[in-house]
Amino acid sequence: MDKEERKTINQGQEDEMEVYGYNLCRWKLALVSLGVVCTGGVLLLFLYWMPEWRVKATCVRAAVKDCEVVLLRTTDEFRKWFCAKIRFLSVETNPFSSPKSVVNKMSIGHAVLLIENPAEENRHEMNKYSPTQSQQIRYFTHHSVKYFWNDSLHNFDFLKGLDEGVSCTSIYEKHSAGLTKGMHAYRKLLYGINEISVKVPSVFKLLIKEVLNPFYIFQLFSIILWCTNEYYYYAIAIVIMSVISIVSSLYSIRKHYVTLHDMVATHSTVRVTVCRGSEELEEIFSTDLVPGDIMVIPLNGIVMPCDAVLISGTCIVNESMLTGESVPVTKTNLPNPSVDIKGAGNEIYSPETHKRHTLFCGTTVIQTRFYTGELVKAVVVRTGFSTSKGQLVRSILYPKPTDFKLYRDAYLFLLCLVAVAAIGFIYTIVNSILNEVEVKEIIVESLDIITITVPPALPAAMTAGIVYAQRRLKKVGIFCISPQRINICGQLNLICFDKTGTLTEDGLDLWGIQRVENTRFLLPETNVCNKMLVKSQFVACMATCHSLTKIEGVLSGDPLDLKMFEAIGWILQEATEEETALHNQIMPTVVRPPKQLLPEFTPTANQEMELFELPANYEIGIVRQFPFSSALQRMSVVTKVLWDKKMDAYMKGAPEVIASLCKPDTVPADFEKVLEKYTKEGFRVIALAHRKLESKLTWHKVQNVNRDTIENNMDFLGLIVMQNKLKQETPAVLAALHNADIRTVMVTGDNMLTALSVARDCGMILPQDKVIIAEALPPKDGKVAKINWHYADTVSQCSSSSAIDSEAIPVKLAHDSLEDLRVTRYHFAMNGKSFSVIQEHFQDLVPKLMLHGTVFARMAPDQKTQLVEALQNVDYYVGMCGDGANDCGALKRAHGGISLSELEASVASPFTSKTPSISCVPNLIREGRAALITSFCVFKFMALYSIIQYFSVTLLYSILSNLGDFQFLFIDLAIILVVVFTMSLNPAWKELVAQKPPSGLISGTLLCSVLSQIIICIGFQSLGFFWVRQQPWYEQWHPQSDACNTTGGLYWNSSHSDNVTEHDEHNIQNYENTTVFFISSFQYLIVAIAFSKGKPFRQPCYKNYSVCTKSVAYNYAYHCCCQCPCVFPGGGLN
């Protein structure tokens, strides 16, 4: 039964949850209803705040399979509860097929839920008018995802599309014909409408949700209580403040929803063309698309309404919405394993693995290319919230809670205040009973002590510092979409930097080339655009092996490709639609050199023209392109020279990868030495290779060939050397971070040696420091995984002499504290492959390597995210700074992610810098530290304010007195609010210091500070209270007394002659009240100044002119009051 009662969904994923089944219980529901009536709705509020209480109070446990309500609990550290109602979906199934199998298929990865082949489809069509039986499918919805019951798994699971468990072969064989209308209708019933629906809640709904917040309920309770105690003015003031707070909160929340709604609405409903079973085309709304539909991509482009995989044609796509990279990307059709010469067999399709063939939702298709009048087609694989954009929107709609020690400690501190309030509550009741006070007065005064001890204005006060910090960040060009993260940024002690575009300049400059002839490197050449080289295969490779395209007549593409193509001065020409329709073998893209570079040449009769003997008007056509893959670290093209019989294959990419795919006898013996020389100097090196293809490879075969068939047995051509300069501000910023004892780490997709060179140039690794490279090898041929350690200066000669015994690694790997890091003179470096192997096979080493790892090269986007998580697991507060390209996951996962790109991808990053410079990082940390210290100051001040007022009221309760309405009003509005909002104005300190701000409220220093101030304040109030009673002019209060009116001045008597008989029923006008009021008022100001900490995290208090002006004004006002006493309207002489 236990197994039936508890299930786990999304196992092993970020949103893993436990599921508990419940059925509604009528007698429990009746009891709860009675409790709600008896408590005046208070019980209902608690049930609204606590979903687990609500379910447990009204339901009984049941098997998950048969339950009516599910209770969900996240398995992360927050253990949050949610509840959802089970719903039923009626599906009409074919009586000749098993309904159970239909339901089972839903969660096994089959996108085709009814029929997977045409024969079954025809049989279904024949029997569609036969009697049918209804199948009820149970499901619930959580965070915009539907979870269906799966009998085969005995668990709930979300409905998958073609993105899981479907092979590449299957996409062509089973899903390339399109869906019939019957299949489409059935799938639409299950998958629902294809939309990323961000509903903007009505103002009324938002208002109800906001007002039912525990804080506002507490305020409502306080206001009712104050009105009962005749504190009308104070209650009205708090109501006005609450209304302003609610309105501003509603405005910001609604604005956030509207912005998000507008972002996803751009592609919510467009008309698209789909293919039906028999080559029939149908135009439908994009909201009707389902996985398995064949979508025709229009020639003039479209904003993709779903995730789809290309099965014919090529697309030029702008993916800036997802990656932050505005460079157009070429997408080619998915390789068809069944027609490949070297097929991929049963390779499973994955949108991540095959992203170069996948069109993602929200990205813009700029152009399409097709051949022989064929349509550009794509199979829909995911729709709605399952798409890449849908998942991004879900992460924004339902963010993971931020765990920060300050907030945890704040709740503990509030609990302590509640305990203090409970003591005051009991004391007031006992004291009032002993003095025979009326029951109504006892209830009001004892509850009033609670509202005094737990200040209702605390959340607003805590927010003030963050709001001011956000405003200051905006002035320096840093925009924030998650204000609560500003405080967390004050704790950052490690920053990860992307390299290209972040530490270095965005663009690359061509430094030169080094060609290979007869297995030897020639001398480096800086001028590539000359007549001597125009006929070379090296230049032909530079001219063709790229992903450039013309958009509205302008050459666009990867900056590296652009620099490379511009260096040779060639011309790129793309075929028009009319030209494509005329020929079966028209080249989609043609490149040719300018005429002035071509030498005069006349071929002899019957002379076969090779690449080195080209006619004067020769052109090279790009027949097939295999786009750059970060996983493979290379790209290649198949080309054909005009009039040539054979095709050529060209490849470029990471030198180590290219060399491994070339014939060994074509790679120079000193290849590693030359490569090491360039990379150590900080150059980015790209290798080129060429191969003449067999004549049997026709144009048609090339369109379906697998890239592995082409990318082997190549001839090594040489190296292209690119220069990537450091940004001017990089060394100074990194030096400032190091001086502040903030660790810096480089995370890049570039070559290891290039990354190490940049790390040394920018000061991340000091000249005298040693670098140890960890090269992890996965298990192979029965051998276990192992790690080879060697120094960076011997990376190219991994001989036994350069290797380091793991036992003799000169860095102590068992550091227990981060302080040890300062004396360490060693850094670890590794590439993405080694990082993955270490994470999988050497998990015990991961924390130790994280403490000293400085350079992580060849890192894929998901590995960057894993690295951030690994660093967080060893108690680092991690910041991530990237230019948005491939950094989105890491930016989002870090404690403080700051994007240097203003594109839509920055919606995933808490901070975005207007200027693409890492100088924003110290600014963010400085403002974060100032905001954090401000939060501590404000919290301590509000706690002291509560305790001071609590003790004032407790003292006055002992003589059955209290503060007057206008006294409370003056303290809370004229003093407290003004103090809170002005003490938060202290700007950040001008530079970063090595000293770290405290991370929590519960620390010895802070507690000592608060407790000592409490003792001083209580001591002086008690002294004043008892001292005034010892004075010879002291008179004890009674209802008819005017004890404080001791002046005999004519002005006083004449102006107050009508008030002589006024009764003071609440015992407010007495000496004790005036004494306690004056002393406490001065104490608020003294405590504010004592807690307004300045250097080294904030500017000193005397530079905060608002605080200085306020202090002088209050002191002058109090001086006047002492010299010339006056009566506040509503009671209370001051």
UniProtKB/TrEMBL annotation:
Residues 270-396 form the P-type ATPase A domain. It is a multi-pass membrane protein. Its EC number is 7.6.2.16. GO terms for biological process: intracellular calcium ion homeostasis. InterPro entries: ATPase_P-typ_cation-transptr_N, ATPase_P-typ_cyto_dom_N, ATPase_P-typ_P_site, ATPase_P-typ_TM_dom_sf, ATPase_P-typ_transduc_dom_A_sf, ATPase_P-type_domA, HAD-like_sf, HAD_sf. GO terms for molecular function: ABC-type putrescine transporter activity; ATP binding; ATP hydrolysis activity; ATPase-coupled monoatomic cation transmembrane transporter activity; metal ion binding; P-type ion transporter activity. Residues 13-150 form the P5B-type ATPase N-terminal domain. Residues 176-226 form the Cation-transporting P-type ATPase N-terminal domain. The keyword Membrane applies. It catalyses: putrescine(out) + ATP + H2O = putrescine(in) + ADP + phosphate + H(+). Keywords: ATP-binding, Endosome, Magnesium, Membrane, Metal-binding, Nucleotide-binding, Phosphoprotein, Translocase, Transmembrane, Transmembrane helix. It is found in: Early endosome membrane; Late endosome membrane; Recycling endosome membrane. Its main location: membrane. One of its GO terms (cellular component) is recycling endosome membrane. The keyword Transmembrane helix applies. The chain crosses the membrane at residues 29-49, 232-253, 410-429, 449-469, 936-960, 966-989, 1001-1028, 1074-1091. Belongs to the cation transport ATPase (P-type) (TC 3.A.3) family. Type V subfamily. ATP-driven pump involved in endocytosis-dependent polyamine transport. Uses ATP as an energy source to transfer polyamine precursor putrescine from the endosomal compartment to the cytosol. This is Polyamine-transporting ATPase 13A3. It comes from Trichechus manatus latirostris.
